[in-house]
Amino acid sequence: MTQSDRFEQGGLAPNFWTRKSLAEMSVDEWEALCDGCGKCCLNKIEDEDSGKVFLTRVACRLFDSDTCRCSQYNIRHKFVPECISLTPNSIPKHAYWLPKTCAYLLLWQEKPLFDWHPLISGSPQSVHQAGISIQGQTVSESDIDEDDWEDHLMEAQ
Ligand code: SF4
Ligand code: SF4
């Protein structure tokens, strides 16, 4: 996954997300697209019959609930090799489970970003202030047996 650790509005072309396709974005632009909601770091349960995906509040072992960020983003694959790296080409494959508010999904769907997105608000805190992020709401998968994840459901996707 991506995480906007390098949120620097000053170093990015103004409104680049409205002027460039996902494939045209630089690495820094791509990373800045992440709103920092943290929802893609939650474990999910998929209903095999309906295909519905439910988020749980059980987060990846590297997720820091207080900062709402990956604690080892740059070297995360050393510890969590299965962590997904979103790319313009892989979004279609993951679209069914990405949170509806995810900036990558929104732009792929040709929808605008929300006003609370840090690129629009100018503050990385706005995603938390708007109640979109999962900051302070998670428990670690290190502490919860996988058989008990369904006791921690958050929302359907
Ligand atoms: S769901 Fe999307 S916007 Fe939210 S943290 Fe993950 S990649 Fe970033
Ligand atoms: S390693 Fe875990 S916490 Fe880090 S980005 Fe991937 S899913 Fe999120």
Give me some keywords for this one.
about 160 residues; alpha+beta; 4-stranded mixed beta sheet; two-stranded antiparallel sheet; 7 helices; 6 strands; globular; binds iron/sulfur cluster
Series of secondary-structure elements, N-terminal to C-terminal: HHEEEEHHHHHEE
Classification by helices and strands:
alpha+beta
Low-pLDDT residue spans: 2-9
The total strand number stands at 6
- What is the mean pLDDT? 92
- Given the C-alpha coordinates, what overall shape results? globular
Q: How many H/I helical runs?
A: 7
Instruction: List each distinct ligand once.
Output: iron/sulfur cluster
Radius of gyration: 15 Å
Helix content: 10-25%
First and last CA, distance: 17 Å
Beta strand %: 5-15%
Quick one: biggest sheet?
A: 4 strands, mixed
